Amino acid sequence: MRILAIETSCDETAISLLEAGGGLKEPKFKILKQTVSSQVKLHAQFGGVVPSLAKREHTINLPVLLKKVLGVKTIEKEFKKIDLIAVTVGPGLEPALWTGIVFAQELSKKYKKPLLGVNHMEGHLFSYLLEKKYPTNLFPAIALVVSGGHTILLQVSSLSKWKKLGETRDDAAGEAYDKVARMLDLPYPGGPNMEKLATLGNPESIKFPRPMVNDKNSDFSFSGLKTSVLYYLRDNKNAKKEDVAASFQQAVIDVLAIKAVRAAKISNAKSLMLSGGVAANKELRRRLKNEAKKLGVPFLAPPMKFNGDNASMIAVAGYLQYLRKKKRPLKANGQLAI
Known about the structure:
CATH superfamily of the largest domain: ATPase, nucleotide binding domain
Strand order of the largest sheet: 3-2-1-4-5
Number of helices: 11
Structural class: alpha/beta
Number of strands: 10
Number of domains: 2
Shape: globular
Oligomer: single chain
Helix content: 40-55%
CATH class of the largest domain: Alpha Beta
Strand content: 15-25%
CATH topology of the largest domain: Nucleotidyltransferase, domain 5
CATH architecture of the largest domain: 2-Layer Sandwich
Radius of gyration: 20 Å
Mean pLDDT: 95
C-alpha cells in the first residue's frame, strides 16, 4: 500500500510518500520520499510558535513540498500509484492543523483517493516502526511519549490496543524545558539548547524536587519543578547556568524514568518504548536504555531524525489505523486524546 502523508500540527510542514505492508502482525515500511520544512528561524524571534504565522507558512509550503516529493512534472502519474492519503487532525495548533486538512481534502477530491485523519500522538507512539530492524514479541509494552505539549505513559497491548496509565497534570516535560530555557536566557527552541548547556554542568550540584515521583499513580507534574528553578535563580544571582540546566534536566529524567520503570514492573512489560520530540534528548535515551537493560527487556525509540514532527510517522499511524478500520472526523482537534 502506498501512502501520502501530511503533517502540519505545529511549526513543521512535512509530506512523506511511504510504502507499507505486512499487516498488523509484521508491518514493514519503506520511505520512498520525505521532506520537512522547519519554521524555527521564523518563530525564534518571538520566543515561541505564533499560530497565525505557522498557518501562513504551512499554506505556502504545502504545494512546494508536494512537488518535491512527487516531482513537478510527475504529480499526476505518481498519484495513480497512491492508495491512501493520511493527514494529522490533532492534537496541535488548530489553525495549523486546518491547513493540512484542507490541503489533503483538496488532493483527495481531485485524485479520488481515500483520506484518513490521523492522531499525531499515535504517529509518535509507533514511530519506532520506522527502524529497519526491531525486536519482536514486544507486548505488553510501556511507552513514554514526551513532547513539547504532552507527557503520557501508556500500556500498549498490541498495535491496535493501548490504554493511558497517566499524563501530566500541568506542564509537559518539553514545555518545562522551554520555560526554564527562557529563564536562563537561552534562544528558541529551548529544549535542544537546554540539553546542550546541561552537558557542561554538574547534575548533582542543585537538589531540585522530583514532583510526584513517590505517588503510586502514573501522572506527572512539572510546574512545581519549573517554579523551584525560578526561585533558585531569584535567590542565587551568581548561579552557574550550566549547573542549573544539568540539575533541572536530571530531575526531569529521574521522574520520567522512575515512573516508566515502576509501570513496567507492575505490568510485566516485555519492552520499554520512548517517543516524541523530547526523545531526541540523548541523556533521557541513555537512562531509559539502561533501565530497560536492568529489566531485561528491549528499549525502543525512533531513529533520531524521526523524533521531531514528520510525515512518515503519520503514514505509519495511518496504515495501522486503516488496518483497524478506524475513522475519525476530518476536522482539527487541538486537544485530541490518544
